[in-house]
Structures are given as C-alpha cells and as structure tokens.
Amino acid sequence: VILDQFDDIVVNVANSYRLQEECDVCSLVLAKYKGTINLGEFKAVMLASLRSLVPKDWDGDHEVAWSWLWENVERMLKNLMGKPQVQEKALERLIMSLTEDAVN
Hints:
With 104 residues, the protein is mainly alpha-helical.
C-alpha cells in the first residue's frame, strides 16, 4: 500500500504542503486496509532495499536522509490514523441531512 504512494512522497519531499497531501491520500488508502499496519517495519525494509540497490554509494548521509524522510512520513501518517473513518461518518451524516433543494 505504501509503495503505491512512495514515489509521490519522495518526489515531493521538498514541498511540505504537497508531502502532507500525499500522506493524506496514503492515510485514506490505509484506512481501508483490514490488516495490521506496522509503519516501523516499512522503514527497516526500505532502508535494507536502498542499501542493496546502491551498495557502493550508500553511506551514513544516505541513511540519515532516508531515515529522516520516513520518520516524518510515519509521524504524519500516525497523526492521521483513525481520522478518515470518523470523517467518513460525519460526511455521511451531513449528506443525509441535506434537503433535495440544498443538493440542487
């Protein structure tokens, strides 16, 4: 699930507003996921994958930068956990309360 959004997250790392939007989208997708979500495991797998992709160039600076990125994304996602379900219920109540005239 995270991998589907990961490219957009990385591309927009320098734009905090856009990064937040990508995390918002990711949280909506995660809200529909029925299994256990362990964001910390993703970091370990991500770093191991990146190390193996560029073993000769990988250094401490890369480790710090990619860790920083994921820790920020993880923080944003954790802040959003559970909110889409609450917002969905509130939106449903709003829509159901609208009269036919208000809809048109």
